[in-house]
Specification:
Blueprint lengths: L1 H12 L16 H11 L7 H14 L3 E5 L2 H11 L7 E4 L6 H8 L3 E4 L11 H11 E3 L5 E3 L6 E5 L10 H10 L3 E5 L7 E2 L2 E2 L6 E5 L12 E5 L1 H11 L23 H11 L2 H19 L5 E2 L6 E2 L5 E4 L3 H13 L5 E2 L19 H9 E4 L7
Parallel strand pairs: 2-3, 2-6, 6-7, 7-10
Antiparallel strand pairs: 1-11, 4-5, 8-9, 8-13, 10-11, 12-14, 14-16, 15-16
The structure holds pyridoxal-5'-phosphate.
Pyridoxal-5'-phosphate binds next to helix 4 and helix 5.
Amino acid sequence: MSDQLIRFIRDYYATNEFIPLHAPVFPGREKEYVADTIESTVVSSVGKYVDRFEHNMAAYTGSQRAVATVNGTTALHISLKLAGVERGDLVITQPLTFVATCNAIAYCNAEPVFVDVDRNTLGLSATALETWLEENASLDADGVCRTRADNKVIRACVPMHTFGHPADLDGLGAVANRWNIALVEDAAESLGSLYKGRHTGTFGALGTLSFNGNKIMTTGGGGMILASEELAARAKHLTTTAKKPHDFEYIHDEVGYNYRMPNLNAALGCAQLEQLEAFIDKKRALAAAYEEYLSGTALEFIKEPENCRSNYWLNAVICEDKADRDELLETTNKQGVMTRPIWALMNHLSMYKNCRKGELSYAEFLEERVVNLPSSVLPK
Ligand SMILES: *Cc1c(COP(=O)(O)O)cnc(C)c1O
């Protein structure tokens, strides 16, 4: 089984060399734009490529505005602050995610609460969210969502669009509205993915992207906040040391952060964004090839949810059980075809093990069975 899959992957990538899980490609104007920043000496905090990257990303996603940051984690941190998350608050998220989602909550001195994912989207489940809130929360006289047991404020919820597959945004939006909690989308993995024709990351009050080296497009390291004009203006201020505009004086009016993306990285981003739709086409072609190859085998290929266009950032399969998963991981990695298991659940990590949680049966099922397959864009 694994041997045949390895053959299939080697044929697709037409190589007998090591095949990574996800490697970036730079077939466009990357060198030209980066060289331009070096020649101009404007490589650091401000510059025309930062403005252009923000403008082009807002236009591409249909967001009112976009604010570039040094990475996706910092974009999440600031987004949570702007959603009103304060010390001691609770933020509901999924246990099946990359650790950055939870770390950003911890940076706000808030606590994550884990509720289950949907089996088909791998994203936060609207039903599980509603159930947890019904069992644990109520709206106070001011309309603030609080836990009944200890009166903690539940300020926000953070769905994550796992491997590029959009979560149930209609369902989540309705629950968040009903309970008066802010929706902040962790769209780090889903740039270019559409839910009912609209870009992920633009449904919540704020949405965040990542341009780390392993994402669908990269700036080396980088992130972005998608938001309304008003929240984005606040995000820009907070991520650029909270400096008041002035011709020469240094006036900072609150504790700000140095989270801005350097111009050098934005130059790379501008070139990559020009090719994003072509990358997505290639990703989707690869996903279709995996899907066809795997149909009728013991491996269940994870498909995009209905009414969605996934960017298929990372292809993934569900193995029958943990023993099969281990066999697949061992055989492929030993033979130079890189595969990886899905993350350990956040509630299994030492720093988050005592956090509140709902019933997590799908997350636990997936934790034992999901494997990511090589997903790089073919360079040719
Ligand atoms: C990549 C990623 C992030 C952000 O990562 P950075 O490396 O800080 O850019 C956040 N959440 C998820 C789910 C991710 O996959």
